[in-house]
Amino acid sequence: QEKEDEAAAHELVHMSHTHARAAAVLQPLVELYGLHLIQKDMAYFVGSNMIDTKAAAELPKMLDAKIALVGGKLSELVYIMGIPSDLVFAPVAQNWVEYNRMDKPMKGELAPNNRI
What we know:
Elements: H1 2-40, H2 42-47, H3 53-71, H4 74-80, H5 96-99
Helix pairs in contact: 1-3
């Protein structure tokens, strides 16, 4: 029983570290989404005197900074969200011509009559 308890305690410590790391990585993404929502309805917020024009003028810089921060954490975000690495690719960053060869089983993204 003692070994089982020790293993359970170890698992709890591991999970708490994992959750803390996930929260730290996801926090800037949540903040970016919040800034996006504010930007989307900025006219309403300024018109209702909820945000002054000086703060509104700072929003693009805040968004740029948050985008840069989130962009630097993309690998961690992909890992935390459980996205398999084989799904993370950008054909345009690879050999785009090879990717779109018509004789391949998937026929690339430019297959004729390709409907989504």
